[in-house]
Structure formats: C-alpha cells, structure tokens
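Re: weekly structure request thread

Next one in the queue (346 aa):
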Amino acid sequence: MKRGRCVRISRIKAYWLRPGYRWCCLAWIGMAVVAQGQTCQGAAEVDPQQRTAIETTAKRYFEMVARGDSAGLQQNSIPVVSVSFSGIEAAVKENQSAFSQAQMAVRSLYLLTAEGNEPLPRAEFLCGVFGASGQTPSSAVFVLHNLPPGKYGVVILDAKQSQDARSLTLILQQAGPDWKLAGFYARSTQINGHDGAWFAQRATEFKAKGQNRNAWFCIRQAIALTAPADFVSTLATDKLYDQAQSLQPSDLPAEGNPLNVSAGSATYRVTAMFGLGVGSDFDLVVKYEAADVSDTYKTFQNNVAVIKAIVAKYPEFRDAFDGVVARAVEPSGKDYGAMLPMKEIK
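Done, posted below.
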C-alpha cells in the first residue's frame, strides 16, 4: 500500500465483547487517507531476507510456547513487555499443551512501519488491496494504540490438531538484527469442532426462528473465533460486524446499562452476559453485582437463583447453550462463580 493513497476502507469502532478479556469491533465503511508515517507490506512485498528472519523468529517463539519456555520468551521480549510478563506467561501455560501436539503453519505475515519521533496514539495500517466496497480477501487493517516508531513484523500462525484448533498472533519489533517479542495473542478458533462460520450460520438460523438473543450471542462468538486478534480487521470479520449490527438486542445488559433480574424476593443487577467456550461446551456467562462473596455457601445459592431466573426470563437460551455460569462480583472485582448444565436447570 503506497503512502498517501486514498482508499475506501473498513473503519472500526470498539464495543465490549468479553468483560475483562476481549474487545471486538463494529465495522462501517468510510473514506480515509493512508497516514504518511504508517505503512504496511504483505509477505510478498517484504524483502525475502527480512521476511525469512521474521518468519523464522516467529516459528522459534512458537516452539518456545510449545515447550512451555516462558523464561526464554521473556528474555527475547522488548523491555516494556519483559517487565510486565505475567499475562503472557499465563497464556503460555494455558496453550502449551495444545501447541505441543499441534501442526503449525504460517497463515499470514506483514511488515508494519511506524515513522516519527513519538509514539502514535492510534496507528492504522492498511495492508493489501482494497476494493470500491472496502476490504477484499487479500486485505487487512491493523489498529494499534500508543505505538512507538519502528518496524514491526506481525505473524499469524495456525496450530491445529484433531481435537483442537488455535491461532497465535505475534508482534515482533525489530531491534538491530533481531526481532523481539512485542505482542502475544493466542485464541481458540473452534469450539467442539465448530468454527466461526458454523456459529455465524447458527446466528442466521436463530434469527429465522425469532430468537434474536441467541443469534446475537452466536454472532459474537463467530467474531471471537474468526478474528486472530482484537486489533485485526479482515473482510471476513467485517461481514460479521455488519451482521452483528442488525442483531444486537436492546434488553440485554451492556456496559453502563445493567439488567435487573428478580429471583424470589431478591433483585440482582446483571452487568454482563456473554458466550464462552469451555472445553467442548458453549456456555452462557452471567456477571452480577454482589456486596460480598466471602460467604461462599450463600453466594452459591445466589448464583443458582440468578441462573434459574435468567433461563426462566429467556427460555430460548436452552437452545443455544450447554450450561450457564453465574459469577457474583464484589466492588473490589473479587468474584465467585457457579455453573449448572442446562439440562439440570429446572
């Protein structure tokens, strides 16, 4: 993509997908001019020697994850990542077993260049060829915040085995002749063998039945399984974002707009509801406000009451989810959860 070229691209607007975990994006089409200090090259455009160095480094870091070598990854990270490594260390532990048994392949590689003398508050990189309607199968948009000037390799890796499929997106920053770890994003691309396209089809089926809430949760899960990282937008994710816009229900909790749910004589303020893949199950997670969760027996009873009240209020959830998880959350953020399989919720 040449600098200064005017193209019609997919711009993105953040909305909450999973509290405390992920952000996703809603897409709309608008005109934009590629910023002079932000350029992107796809794999075919990158100097072969540089491309080989980036790809080789990404594969080496994947192998470290497969071995559970968090210490090695930390030593090969940029300073700002190395001094706050606990999140990546936890992600390595979570994915190590799956990656150690998986067949790894490079899905795509990009070289991003951020010019200037100060970090860019919002760096937007347009990669590949865009059409009159926006993105094409060969394009991608990266939006990174507070990005220091430099060269960055973005490598998206697929790790598949018979019972599991995941992706690992690595951001590598050039430091002299080396490429240091600057970002680590691992996520599942399937739940019980079902990928984003399957969940998108389920959303269409639920919408046809008038079950718009189930359709909404399924399309959100489709986005989560399709986007390799929250800062990446592609033609596939743009289509899902557009579909999500027409499905978002008005009677579910949203950030700053809780839902009051009555259970017996008590009323609970539900702050968040989202789908979550847990093993081979697709569960509904319900978070609600609690003054104190130290009495675990009482909190468990409250959790069960919330679960039953939610399913009674929205019986269509029985068709979409394998179970419901309720999590009571104190003002401090401490929480206590309980889960019931759907078949046990009477």
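The chain has nine helices and 15 strands. The two ends are 57 Å apart (CA to CA).
Next request, please.
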